[in-house]
Specification:
Elements lengths: L3 E6 L5 H9 L17 E7 L2 E7 L11 H14 L2 E7 L6 H11 L5 E6 L6 H5 L10 E3 L8 H9 L16 E7 L5 H9 L17 E7 L2 E7 L12 H16 L2 E7 L6 H12 L3 E7 L6 H14 L7 E4 L11 H12 L5 H14 L11 E9 L4 E7 L6 H15 L7 E6 L13 H15 L1
Parallel strand pairs: 1-3, 1-4, 4-5, 5-6, 7-9, 7-10, 10-11, 11-12, 14-15
Antiparallel strand pairs: 2-3, 8-9, 13-14
Amino acid sequence: MKPVIALVGRPNVGKSTLFNQLTRSRDALVAELPGLTRDRKYGHGRLGERPFMVIDTGGIGEGLEGVVAPITDQARAALEEADLVFFLVDGRAGINSADEELAAQLRVLDKPVHLVVNKTDGLDPEVASADFHALGFPRLHAIAAAHGRGVRGLIEESLADFPVAEPESAEEGEETRVAILGRPNVGKSTLLNRMLGEERVVVYDEAGTTRDAIHVPLERAGRRYLLIDTAGVRRRGRVFEAVEKFSVIKAMQAVEAAEVVVLVVDAREGMTDQDQHLLAHVLEAGRSVVVALNKWDGLSQDFRLRVRQQLGEQLGFAPWIRVQFTSALHGTGVGDLYELIDRAKASAFPKVSTGRLTRLLEDLVSEHSPPMIGRHRPKLRYAHIGGGNPPRIVIHGNKVEALPDGYRRYLENRFRQLLELEGTPVRVEFKSGRNPWEGKSNPLTPRQRKRRKRLLRHNRR
């Protein structure tokens, strides 16, 4: 098993910066603002042949208004999951009461705790860390996480007491990456917690509680998922704070990294212009999508009927998108999301032979021939799968580059119907067969051409 390291400390001591150094990523948001991290974030690191897992947590001990209690709960949950703890303090600011209070809680843990004195760049490490010996931890390390100084020595020493993890055996089937996307306060974090069956991410009755993209692994019914909770995305004109702009970027990056996107829509408001804008971004990225119409419980039958009709009109351009009516708060319809996600994932990576796809193409051409281009009709010869997420169907033929978009859409829709693809956009690409003599002069002399004609006439007799 991989050892699990929890990063804890008061706000703005550099936990997320150290997380990014240990995982060699930029997954955690970093800014000179306290309280930026609110949920616990998981990441994977490796030192040579030694893999490990890191958990980033929110700051503990200094008031962050109403959300301080759930953030502290998230940090405590990380401590329970961890095999060892990195207790971060600020080497420039020195010890304060929040450090002492947290140190008292960590000293009673039955787990190894390493005191990490951060932000010692430009300082004498021994001088910067001298006062922190008073916190009573024998394992003390002075580092500068922003520059990576001392980080390798920290991880080497902390992992020395753990056996080298054996290589994990490859399990059948790959995990499905699912991004949960939507406007602020539509219930994304509540939905993720309900899917997990635990209070995994902070839920607070205030728009914008989630600021970073939170990755949570999950196994259900023999299938593995990676659920990604994203920050709520407002209209561009309403994004003012720098932190919120970072969060929007993270949400968009999560869409690019996902295989299936669950777009959460508030049933009480219906699909707004911003919801449609987010959906357009998902489709432009070519990702499979499932719409979760949340907060469905408690609505009157007449209101539900109006919402259904409105949604049918708004999704009329893409009838292949599946909609699940849910109540994340009460759990209604949440379990059924997994079936739609699985079907959307399978559709995003279709397994179709070139022979079958070519036979379907011949049937579609017989059903509706390509339009004439000038005096010639393009000829479609064969088709094959060119990739997945989104599925690309590559069609080879002659003069296909001039085919109109309407015929391309016809092929996309019919291929989707015949292959039973749902929840995913389909891309049809054309490739022309090239004439090897195109642009070249005739290599035969006039005498050779006459001789060839005589031979052809002789052979016909």
